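Please predict the structure of the following assembly.
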Amino acid sequence: MGTFTGSFKGFGVTFAHMFRKVVTTDYPFTPPTPAPRYHGRHILNRHPDGLEKCIGCELCAWACPADAIYVEGANNTDEERYSPGERYAGIYQINYARCIFCGLCIEACPTRSLTMSNEYELARDSRQDLIFTKKELLAPLLPGMEQPPHPMRLGGTDKDYYLGALDNPGTSVGAERAPWSESGTEDAATAVDADARPETAGTLRRPGQSAKEAV
Amino acid sequence: MTDVAKKTDTVTLTIDGIEVTAEKGELVIRVAERMGIAIPRFCDHPLLAPAGACRQCLVDIEGQRKPVASCTQTVAEGMVVKTQLTSEVAAKAQGGVMELLLANHPLDCPTCDKGGECPLQNQAMTNGRADSRFKEHKREYEKPIHISSQVLLDRERCILCQRCTRFSEEIAGDKFIDLMDRSSGEQINVYRDDFFGGEGTGDGQAGDGEGDVPFNSYFSGNTIQICPVGALTGEQYRFRARPFDLVSTPTACEHCAAGCSMRADHRRGKVLRRLAGDDPAVNEEWNCDKGRWGFQYQTADDRIMTPLLRDARTGELREASWSEALLAAAEGLTAARGNGGVGVLAGGRLTVEDAYAYAKFARLALGTNDIDFRARPLSAEEADFLAASVAGVSDVTYEDVENAPSAVIVGLEPEDECPILFLRLRKGHTRKKLQVTAVAPFLSRGFEKLGAALVPATPGDEARLLAGDPAVAAALAAPGALLIVGERLATVPGALSAAAALGARTGARLAWVPRRAGDRGAIDAGCLPNLLPGGRPVSDPAARAEISLAWDTEAGKLPTAPGRDTDAIVAAAAAGQLGGLLVAGVDPSDLADPRLAEQALDAAGFVVSLELRHSAVTRRADVVLPVAPAAEKSGTYLNWEGRLRSFETVLPTTAMTDGRVLEAIAALIPSNHPAAAQETTKGISLGTGDVMAIRRELGTMPPTRSARSVAPAVAATALPGTGEHEAVLATWRQAIDQGSLLEGDDVLAGTARPPVVRISRALAAGLGVIDGDAVTVATDRGAITLPAEVTRELPPHVVWLPTNSPGSTIGRSLGVTAGAVVRLTAGRPGPVLASSEVTA
């Protein structure tokens, strides 16, 4: 008796699931869209003229509980300028074998240079490739930006950059949102700009695009 | 005794309700500090005079109308002090001062080098407000201006505590940096023409305008270290690291014989900065810029990392394995030992342990006393003097210098040649009763700052002055007087004899101050042709027996005859009489005759060089073995006092000490003793591979019972005659020059004193030159042309040149040493002279 009703109970669960929402994702073909606040890989943002926002202050490295960030500062000169002000990051590395994506570095960043994107596809073949340098981390140049080193275009001193930062944020606003997010910024929504967005740089795919197309 | 009497003179006061007894005259902030009550402060520094400039240390004292700065207030009987811990008034006053200090302080912390170790940042966090009420624009200055090639000044960050100006004025005596302007525009700066309405460049950079005076003090780095904000920063460490990145190791300075303790900070296998250590007995809390910044040689591109062997076929050096190179060195030295012998030039840069290894290697493996550490002009008289009066003696200390009533300085320019000794002399002069008498050609800047009385000396005349000058004898009459002689006196025949005799006659204590860190240690370790380790005379059989016992060898195995000194080794090698040379860190340019030294290296049959970087020696060596720089090994220096300055490894690497390399070579050298002739396969066991083993060996060696040799008695020689337009050459090395440990350090070189030729007024009149005119100093070998500086006190027929500064390399260009007669002409040399300068 117990066995009989027990079997029906078990099958009942199975039948019930047939009418529930499917949780399986078709991952490699249709990657899921994370929430806008999702902590993905980092981006080093730029000022609107292309200068780096990072000043090499190492506060992110200081805040990092996993010791994943390595920074060495360097001296900007009038001839060779990478960021407004005196200092820029000569070396900037994040080791994704160590990073725990806690976001404390983002909180520590005094210039909003370091933000996180929604990109989560970070598997690599070797440990060495998991150490991202400025080459991988820097935001791509948007239209109107110029590859540093170049002189300050937005004013005479670094203060002109920081005081106007709210009206003219460069790549730091919206950089953390994925372009497929509904609340994505205007420039991210257009197809042209989407190619230039940091989150879509590299081999990351957009929704609806197959793995083959992306490569 | 007087100190004890003073201590009984005490007062009792109350701080935060706790009764405390303090010395009369003590500052309230110090008494609180002793009790463990931390009062915030910026301008207060225990080694500087009280200033009360920053007002951060305000405390509430009963009976006073307003809060009082505790760093200037001395204690009084019955005083009742309430700090911020117990008094609302004091806390509010301190909070207000902090808010005012921060009102104009920029929000620079992320880019500021001081961030993370900044007293202002720390105390703003502990005592300051959480937010700012100051909404207006902060005061703006041009961001950092170079006040010297090495020091940067950011006036926005400055809180006008005046630690830097007080250090420069009180301690170093270089008042290049001062408060300027008034009111809210008051600022620290160096003298700039445009600042005072003159014709400057107007861009705020010092040193561009014609009358600008950059901050070129030998001690400028200390102001960076004591700056409580990031207003003064150094070019070399700029933006290189944060405090939390750095691993700090206490160490000792490897530059001069002052023996400063230091702190080396490294990150990722590279030393990034060095700071003065806190050692009240030696360097107090200061060091010189050379010690602070002169460490780039360790990471120079031409550092030798693998053994090199001269290829028999091509004649070029090629990389070799350690085993191959060691075997080649051992075989070559063994052959050279039987073929005229091997001379050992140890150099003055070795630690005591490494010097001891060379001394032991020379005696046991090479069977010779031909070993000398002196890589500079020298004399046989000096070796005798060192054996009699210096080896094993540590009679005079820094404290004695500070408290002496009188000091006579001969053959030494303390600021250039031993900067920390200079600071201590200056402390004695400014704060105590020290009277300095300089037996020198003229009053140099250093002597001027010491308020020294000049006994004018033509180079070569020092012996006569020491023997008979009444001013010198009078200066040494007071009990506790000191006679401080420099290593340069070796070139004056009879001078060291006269110094020893004068010391014995007047009772003045004698201090011999060499220039390099390893010099003093090398004497005690036995790197002299007439001395075995521990100051034992080579010629004394009892002393040799003691060493034989310590080294566990048969008596009679040690070489008995005193060996050749550096000059004799060089001469013998140049004449082809030596089979080989073993050379440690020696630069031929430092020797009396660089050209002859290079000929000697060429002529010697087999040359082994233990070096850090490529040099004139490695270019001529048959085997080059890389050794560890000071940061990569542990060891001990003996400073001029005879004080041990031990240090441990800063950067652990695979680099080997000289002692370890020598041990490895010795193990492959068969013993040369007749009794051991059969067992040729057995090598010599040196036991110098481990620094701790050497320390144990030296520590267990009992003090010698052999008699100290007697001081030399060499007669003074007459001064050479000088014709018209001829002069006697005076020279010494400036602190920051072209020394091989400072090579490639351009930022530091920018703060060096500009090389000039100093000529007497009589010579200037005879040549018809004024300050700034080019004057050429020539010998038969070559010529040096520098701008003239007419120097008032110089004796009529004396000319002074820096020994090894840009444009003035005495040994190489002129081929002479101090005391030689040189020819002078106004202007630049003609084509004939110019070509000879090129060939030199």
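The radius of gyration of chain B is 29 Å. Confidence is low (pLDDT under 50) at residues 200-204, 832-840 of chain B.
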